From TrEMBL:
This is Methionine--tRNA ligase, mitochondrial. Keywords: Aminoacyl-tRNA synthetase, ATP-binding, Ligase, Mitochondrion, Nucleotide-binding, Protein biosynthesis, Transit peptide. It is found in: Mitochondrion matrix. It catalyses: tRNA(Met) + L-methionine + ATP = L-methionyl-tRNA(Met) + AMP + diphosphate. GO terms for cellular component: mitochondrial matrix. Residues 46-410 form the Methionyl/Leucyl tRNA synthetase domain. GO terms for molecular function: ATP binding; methionine-tRNA ligase activity. It is an enzyme of class 6 (ligase). Its EC number is 6.1.1.10. One of its GO terms (biological process) is methionyl-tRNA aminoacylation. CDD domains: Anticodon_Ia_Met, MetRS_core.
């Protein structure tokens, strides 16, 4: 079974090797960012983050959303290198009562506040290596045109009417709440007040004549959409939660506010007394960035994958699909939902003073280090906890010691004095497990390693398609540990290049380890782009050899030529990832000697 599973991926001796891209492309996927049963070589893909509210500076939750989308997008580009095949948008949400109030409290005009905070998001994403193709601001002219066109379409279809709308309004969440979602509690002065049951934010009873969207007409179409596509919302618990919401009554939705109350927004076309509801305004950004209302958007919209936090699930999984259906469009292809980050077990809050500044973390742990931590530890299904010691322990263990130590061992001058990719000896490591002979040195555990690394790219691709990036990194980390065990087991530092008995096996051990490192570096590019570049450059892997289409692992094992065999390694680049806890830094130094 071991040999069969390896050969299925890489090809039998005497046949052409099968590249990972060819293998993945031949499979049919039932879910994932490329679409159901799409051939990845021909399909487009469009990834989006939420657009982030500019009432406060960015925190690690914002960065986490952007990193999830960035990793999905980068992995997609490894599969389909054409830059024109993938789009990725992010940006800032700059209208609404909350912005209006925050600007007034700061003594600023709304435009000044928006410019200041939007620049902070843009700078953070630039520093964190977010590879978006568009950064949209809802105050842009192109967006106003798109929103007003979308509004006009809903009105022309008879889905908007003017009526008296009343209920509990939460300015912090920019939405009306049903009676069941409101409770009373004492404020800091001891006075009783009404607040949102879920968030604790204050609410006020509001009664206005507004434009109202006939949301109630879309309950059954939304149910049919979700029941007909179990992968529409992932992870599955969130898909199930939306269907449960749709079991309840779906009342019509207020989609405007009086301009006298909310002036900071986009006016309703033909009625300056009303301002378009901030959530309708914000959601249309996903159309704006692909050219709406021009015809070009139609070729991108069916490939859309939204990456959102669980707190805005209802807006994206009920209101937005209903609005799209009302405008004659399809719902988003995929909605990927993630949970939140807590700090030392507590919810991040300005009042608690525990909001984590992501730029400080990027400086403290390095850009690649903090990217790796958030994506390795973040599990979309449930909230994840941040504290400094946890970051240091993970990065030192997996990046500095395990991965960095492995690279240092295999490239150290004492073990690899020629500074090359050594020759693989098929006599020492035959492709037939169980063969015996005076030159055979490979053990059963070594064949298990080959199998694990050979199937790793497929595993990683499946995890990305299932929005489980943390599992992809877990799988890579497991193989790194296995490779370290392989090197430790055969102890190349005890072998002698001058010995005709030792030399072929010494070269083979290093060749296998370097091939494993090449796979790890290739697969880590979406998460730690700079670190992966450093690793691959040290191995002498050129920029054109880093895609999944070029990732044929250990071809010499199957009797095929290896383009890296005998090639000089790249220049020395120092430690791959310096330890953060210097009290154990001697371990890394020991690996280098």
């Amino acid at each position: 079974m071991l040999r069969i599973s390896v050969l299925r991926l890489l090809g039998r001796p005497g046949t052409s090797g099968v590249s990972l891209l060819e293998y993945i492309s031949s499979r049919h996927y039932s879910s994932g960012p490329l679409g159901a049963r799409d051939d990845i070589r021909g399909a487009r893909a469009f990834f989006t983050t939420p657009i982030f509210y500019v009432n406060a500076a960015p925190h690690i939750g914002h960065l986490y959303s952007a990193l999830l989308a960035d990793a999905l997008c980068r992995h997609r580009r490894l599969r389909v290198p054409s830059a024109a095949a993938t789009r990725f948008s992010t940006g800032t949400d700059e209208h609404g009562l909350k912005i209006q109030q925050a600007a007034a409290a700061a003594g600023l005009a709304p435009t000044e506040l928006c410019d200041r905070v939007s620049a902070q998001f843009r700078q953070l994403f630039r520093e964190a290596g977010i590879s978006s193709t568009d950064f949209i601001r809802t105050t842009e002219t192109r967006h106003r045109i798109a929103v007003q066109h979308f509004w006009g379409l809903l009105k022309a279809r008879g889905l908007l009417y003017k009526g008296l709308y009343e209920g509990w309004y939460c300015a912090s969440e920019e939405c009306f709440l049903p009676e069941a979602k409101v409770t009373r509690q004492s404020d800091s002065s001891g006075d009783s007040c009404h607040v949102s049951l879920e968030s604790g934010h204050p609410v006020s009873w509001t009664k206005e004549e507004n434009y109202i969207f006939r949301l109630s007409q879309f309950r059954e179409p939304l149910q049919r959409w979700l029941r007909g596509d179990p992968q529409a919302i992932a992870p599955e618990p969130f898909h199930r939660a939306v269907l449960q919401w749709l079991e309840e009554e779906l009342p019509d939705l207020s989609v405007s506010r009086k301009s006298s109350h909310l002036h900071w927004g986009i006016p309703v076309p033909g009625d300056d007394s009303q301002t378009i509801y901030v959530w309708l305004d914000a959601l249309v950004n996903y159309l704006t960035v692909i050219g709406y209302p021009n015809a070009e958007f139609k070729s991108w919209w069916p490939t859309t994958s939204h990456i959102i936090g669980k707190d805005i699930l209802k807006f994206h999984a009920i209101y937005w699909p209903a609005l799209l259906l009302g405008a004659g469009m399809s719902p988003p292809h995929r909605i990927y939902v993630h949970s939140h980050w807590t700090v030392c077990g507590q919810k991040m809050s300005k009042s608690l003073g525990n909001v984590v500044d992501p730029r400080t973390c990027l400086d403290r742990y390095t850009v690649d280090g903090f990217r790796y931590f958030l994506l390795r530890q973040g599990v979309p299904n449930w909230d994840c906890d941040y504290y400094d010691e946890k970051v240091v322990k993970l990065l030192d263990s997996e990046l500095a010691d395990a991965l960095g130590g492995l690279l240092n061992r295999c490239t150290a001058k004492r073990i690899n004095p020629s500074g090359t990719y050594p020759v693989f000896c098929t006599t020492c490591f035959p492709s037939e497990p169980g063969l015996v002979g005076p030159s055979v040195r490979a053990q059963a555990e070594d064949y298990a390693l080959v199998n694990a690394v050979a199937t790793l790219p497929r595993q990683v691709a499946d995890h990305y398609d299932n929005f489980q990036i943390y599992k992809a990194l877990e799988a890579v980390s497991s193989c790194v540990r296995q490779t370290n065990g392989f090197v430790q087991r055969h102890a190349p530092w005890r072998l002698n290049w001058e010995s005709p008995v030792d030399a072929p096996w010494l070269g083979t051990v290093l060749h296998v380890a370097l091939e494993c490192l090449r796979v790890f570096g290739t697969l880590l590019q979406p998460v730690t782009p700079s670190l992966a570049d450093k690793l691959l450059s040290r191995l002498g892997v050129s920029a054109t050899e880093r895609g999944l289409g070029e990732l044929c692992f250990l071809p010499r094992f199957y009797g095929h030529p290896c383009p890296f065999e005998g090639r000089r390694l790249g220049p020395e680049t120092g430690l791959l990832f310096p330890r953060l806890d210097q009290s154990r830094a001697w371990l890394v130094k020991a690996h280098r000697t």
